[in-house]
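Follow-up to my post from last week.
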Amino acid sequence: MTCDEAEILLHALIDNELDAGHARDVEKHIAGCPDCAAALAAYREMSKAVAGMNLRYAAPAGLRQRIEASLPRPTPQTLVTRALAPDRRSVLRGFAMGSGLSALAATGLIAIVMRNDGEQRVLSEVVTAHLRSLQAGHLIDVVSTDQHTVKPWFNGKLDVSPPVVDLTAQGFTLIGGRLDYVDARSIGAVVYRRRQHIINLFVAQTANTERHAAKMETMQGFNVRRWSEQGMNFWAVSDIGPDELAEFGEKFEAALPASS
Amino acid sequence: MPFNSSGEDYERAQRFRDAALPYLDDAYTLARYLLRNADDAEDAVQECYLRALKHFDSYRGPAMKPWLFAILRNVCRAEYARRASSPATDIDDIPEGAEQTPLWHEVQDTPETQMLRERDASAVQKIVSALGEPFRETFVLREIHNLSYREIADIVAAPVGTVMSRLARARAMLRSAWMAQEEQQK
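User reply:
Got it. Predicted complex:
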């Protein structure tokens, strides 16, 4: 090997980019060539020093905001379409009822638009919590198929008492409960099994006591059925099909004891 | 237009945001070195993210960072082409250092040497920015972004051997420029 060759290859040697054969060749040359040996030592030092320096630039905050702003966001159009898609006739009824109601609808629309980001975030957190629960040893804090064991277990652990309903007869086996963490707060998770599939039912308190009909959403391949009643928000998350998850939700709602 | 198309766009944008935005500082750093101008770098990075989003559906790899960098490099090259009429400011006339005395000394980390290092960093940034384009690009991808020769070769569309020789040349230039600076300070 000549010095000219070694001069280039020694950089690959420093970067661990040489296969064993070439590395041996370079090392052999260097062992017999003081000039190349000195160069290798100097470049090694230089690489180390450069690696220890901060040579990066931080992106200006304005750039991040501009890029964020250029990404598609949910438009009011989309939300209206989505929210009302199941019953488009009600949109027409709304129009017929005059501008007063339209104005009201518009106000509601703003609330929907503003709330959507938060809802999306919570949705993705709920799915993440579901995924986390499937890792070994994370699924259940209290193991029981008995609702009278699972329900009291939550007492004092949460600001809400999650309803625990035994749905074994309906094909959904209660297997336990767990404390989880979503949207920076503790949340109850009641765990059911359908064949080999796990259903996490997340329950959180909400200030809103209105009943919200169920909405089915899909995220990262999981189905999420979300609804609200009796001052609680529910998210049922599972990899079972949307029809089966809907069935679960309906049976749960039907079996839920009336508000006390 | 189908009713739910903007909804899908939004979900796609969400996935893109999660995958690509963590590399914003990396992309900006590369653009700063390639274009040597803060405003142009911002524009290039923004354009890069727009293009990346457009092609996100067909993205199957490589890793996100090299993929973004390949797009960014194309954007920056278009910018070079635009600038082509303006006088070249690339510096290839960095004096060749003849001496082979080692540049870097192992130092203990005292507050003084810490300060020295910070000064060193901005000095090195200047020297790197002064390197000719192919050398600067290779050096930044390797030393600042820690990409492998293979990844760099894919990004700059050149053989690995070329990457290796450009890197050798870049380090040699950095070393002599550094030595020249030290000479001046004496």
